[in-house]
Amino acid sequence: MSEKLYMVPNQPTPNIPVRFDPALCNGCNRCVETCSRDVLMPHPEKKQPPVVLYPDECWFCGTCVEECGRPGAIRMVHPLNQSVVVHWKRKETGEYFRLGMKNPPPPNTRPPAR
Ligand code: SF4
Ligand code: SF4
Fold first, then answer.
1. Is the pLDDT of residue 69 over 90?
2. Domains and CATH numbers, the chain
3. To the nearest whole number, what is the mean pLDDT of the chain?
4. 27 CB less than 6 Å from ligand 1?
5. Residue-wise DSSP of 38-81
């Protein structure tokens, strides 16, 4: 084939759903193959971490992280509004707050689902 084909990352978005640790990732592309949304693409150079080509297509399903056989090579970066462990502190009083609820959370008084 005489024509070249280019993959162009989506530049306008600041979203980075997954991050790679280049020291741990061996570029096996298992995560690329398992992603049903085709968010990731193999790096043009061998043994390099994949490229997050279409970050806005990520469902945050975590399959890529689950499938990776090298712990720490890839990790999810959930957006702030999806992170349930977000805390912030009131400087004046030292009080801690959690996103969307009091800290500690109020007791769950609902009966169990049947
Ligand atoms: S993150 Fe894991 S599965 Fe993906 S290329 Fe690197 S080593 Fe392979
Ligand atoms: S979290 Fe799911 S959708 Fe997002 S890159 Fe990983 S496998 Fe693909």
1. yes
2. 18-78 (3.30.70.20)
3. 87
4. yes
5. --EE--SSTTSPPEE--GGG-----HHHHH-SSTTSEEE---GG
